[in-house]
Amino acid sequence: MKTFAGLRVHEIVQTYSDTLIRIAVQQTKNMSEAEDIVQEVYMTLMKQKKPFDNESHLKAWLIKVTFNKCKDYFKSSRVRKTVSITDEMTFIAKEEQSVLPEIFELVQEDRVIVYLHYYEGYTTAEIANLLEMKVNTVGSKLRRVRMKLKTILEEGSKV
Where are the transmembrane segments (predicted)? Predict the structure, then answer.
């Protein structure tokens, strides 16, 4: 059986599927499309010939490919009207759901940065590397998004 970074394919699927699904859902806002995208990611993995240095390299590769597949999705003719994302997000913890509508209002690039930083725990340098951006750009976008979300959440709690 084929292995990547010392892990068998079924171990990779068990370990990373939730993360990849969350990324794809927050990008596409559609659970069924997200599942299709993650399947495509795993098919791409199976065709991968270059070895991974370690498990963190594998994880970064999977995340990057997932974002790229999401970009491809938006370029394709598959994009269509979607079901309300909050109806499909039952697998996300309650505390995360409280800010999801606000996060989904952000532009796609900002959502990516927020997700990678707060949900996956990546540093700004790691995000910059994954998204092929400058570290300072990621840092300033993260600061602007924090201020924007803070304003949105404060206004919502005053109502």
Answer: none
How do the domains of the chain map onto residue ranges? 1-83, 93-159
Tell me: the pLDDT tens digits for 14-38? 999 999 999 998 888 889 899 999 9
What class, spelled out in words, does domain 93-159 have in CATH?
Answer: mainly alpha
Answer for the pair 130, 23: CB distance below 8 angstroms, yes or no. Answer: no
Average pLDDT, stretch 100-122?
81
Residue 7 pairs with which residues in a beta bridge?
4
Residue type, 133: M
Burial of 81 from C-beta contacts in 10 A (0-12 / 13-18 / 19+): exposed
Q: Check if the beta carbon of residue 24 is closer than 8 Å to that of residue 33.
A: yes
Rounded to the nearest angstrom, the gap between the alpha carbon of residue 3 and the centroid of all alpha carbons in its chain is 24
CA 83 – CA 146 distance, rounded (Å): 27
Q: What's this model's pTM, rounded to 2 decimal places?
A: 0.66
